[in-house]
Amino acid sequence: MSNTHHYAENIIKKGKLGHKGKINMFDLNKIKFTPYEAEDVEKLKEYFYMRPNKSCDSAPLDSFIWRNYYKVQKCVIENECCMMMLEKEEGYAGCVPMCDEAKLPEYFKLQEKYFNEVLNSPFQIYLADEEGVEVLKNAGALDNYEVSEEEDLKDYLYEGEKLRTLAGKKLSKKRNHINKFKQLYEGRWEYRRLTKEDKLIMLAMLTSWKLNKDETSEGEGINENEESFDAMESLDAEILGVHDILNNDSVFENVRVGGIFIDGELKAFSIGNYNPREKMAIIDIEKADPEIPGLYQMINQQFLINEFPEAELVNREDDVGLQGLRKAKLSYYPSGYERKYMLKQKDFIAR
To answer: 16, 88 in Cβ contact below 8 A?
Structure first.
């Protein structure tokens, strides 16, 4: 039995909140969730790296992009844990707490208590990362939870060097696309890092990309249960998130942004951030003119070469059940996946 298990077992069975006192004695009214704001991307980033986590949520940008869609809120406890909470029509949902791995079961149980006693709601978590779930399972913290994998929402992981070099027979088609692009646009294209001075041209390109998507997309995805869903709703929320990035210098300056220009005109850009604990690049946004052959392959490779030369791992997020996106991600031959889980409390009785 691990030390983490012994520590958590003591918390769960005896009701202790570490060195701070008992859970039952902890003043839950001191827990105040407030909206996740632009300044939190810089201010809270160290909490994201406190424990192992290879999901796209393991760095602060993803939560910011989706903050309005999911009404993301945060709460810092004792300067050693950051809790996150989402709110949609279906009700409240938590996130796996961001803290030292050894204290994860403790803060998980504290957030559960907050949901039960303050929100009068069962504790549930969407998109729980597999590293966090493993710790909580081993500690016995999930004994009264339904745990189910969210198949369509697993993140695709790749070896950084392979995506930068595209070496090997399997990736020969990608190299061919890039070589064809370079021949066709020789002397006419350039990659460069984008700054806040480039925001207007990024917005113009994003608008053009969205119009093209509206005209060509079926707007429907199919999940693992073969149920249809509105993919455009998610896309609209993502685009609003990009606007949020471009409208907040404090966020823009804390992420990595690059673009490809053809004849001086921006035709592709990508936005990402970096998890130093996992040595992992997270590609949050990637947009390119779909009419230009090889452009997506170019921005994919050039962004990693220029902005993430140190990344050993690359997280290119999930495919949200879109078959075309799934095919594209599989064509780069992922080295693995970061699986995500739904956690639902079973024993809650509303007051």
So the answer is: no
